[in-house]
Amino acid sequence: MNILDEFDTITAIATPIGTGGVGIIRISGDKAFDIIKNIFTNPNFEPKKFNHGWIKDGKEKIDEVIVLPFFAPNSYTGEDVAEIQCHGGVNVVKNILNLVLKNGARLAERGEFTKRAFLNKRMDLSQAEAVADIIHSKTSDFAKISTKNLSGVLKEKISEIRNDIFEVLSKITAGIDFPEDVLEPDYDYLIDSFQAIKDSINKILSGANTSNIFRQGISVAIVGKPNVGKSSLFNALLSLNRAIVTDIAGTTRDILRETLDLGVPVTLIDTAGIRNEGVNKVEEIGIEYSKQSLSEADLVLFIYDAKEGLKSEDEEILNMVKDKKHIVIANKCDLSETRTSGTIYISALNGDGIAELKQTLTKTVCDINPEDLEFVTNTRQQECLNKAKTSIEQAMVAAQLHELQDLISIDVKSALLALDELTGELITDDILNNIFDHFCIGK
Ligand code: GDP
Fold first, then answer.
1. pTM (2 decimals)?
2. Per-residue pLDDT for 253 more than 60?
3. Which CATH superfamily is 224-365 part of?
4. 353 CB within 6 A, ligand 1
């Protein structure tokens, strides 16, 4: 959709499609209340009041509902918005949606409600992106972190930096435009100001890696020879019976992946046991997959049988992972008294040591308290910040060389534009559409 498209009235189901207590159909635009008047038995709207009544198609009753009217500009989108709360059955929700469409609304595109909120200046782009992050967050910690940007933490910090850049630019421009009345700022002032701006940008960027880990997650592969208890550990960490556990070597042939919430999302991978002897064709393919998963994993859980001890086959596998981040685990500790330092002893069967392993895993994966993460950014925002930083660094070098302030102002303006791109003040249709395409319908 083009940014300049007319703001016609849009509608969508705002709740997941399925059976639930309540289903919500959202309508936004000039015709929202007119449509409600056509299909609702009690459309006597007042701001901040909900209305109870029936949705009707002509004389036919569709469902008993509550309608919440939000008057422009005090709504999510900044337009007139009506939300119909009906019973949460798949078909009743669809019937009401179809009725709203029949009465003049158009089906909303992905993220179109939030896009309108942005275009109507109800939120800046960092807040709109936070909405998508909250919806798509794979862990509860990331959902909490994302609310920081929704509440405008990043927006305020960027606006502060923008003001600082603008102040320097104003002084340079005044000196250039009115050389007789205004002295151009001295170079030491420029250098100090640029340094302070760069420090502020760096402060935001210092959380970039952690933000990326929280956003993208990491992959953890469980490797070891057959029958040491890889699938049992996989199940124990996930607290479910996902992988088949037997005492027959070579049972796991396909790679199994599941997401584990350790604050950061962890993709846990159960692999086929690696061995050289007695391998058939199918198992051989499984072993090849295991080696591939091992090389792609961010972290490896190497597991061996505590009762058998570390055999040469185990050592061969340990040798493959030695250059990667890894944790050494001895399983079946219920069958052995031996303990060696640097190894975590567990029993995937009875759960001993699993809590300790999870703690070590969390620490190794991302040793950070989400509350300590002051600024959360995505890669688009990081790119804009890096562009702004490069421009300020260039301006600083030019100031150190006492170059013409006219020239310096070019880099300072570029820094400003990069920040405007971050907040969405200056953004192309393509970038905007790309951002909102990652939303779901109804948001
Ligand atoms: P994998 O081939 O490495 O995936 O191993 P499995 O998880 O399929 O387990 C192989 C066998 O070891 C099964 O019979 C499990 O019940 C058994 N096993 C797994 N973990 C433990 C454990 O901690 N203690 C004991 N005693 N047996 C275990």
1. 0.73
2. no
3. P-loop containing nucleotide triphosphate hydrolases (3.40.50.300)
4. no
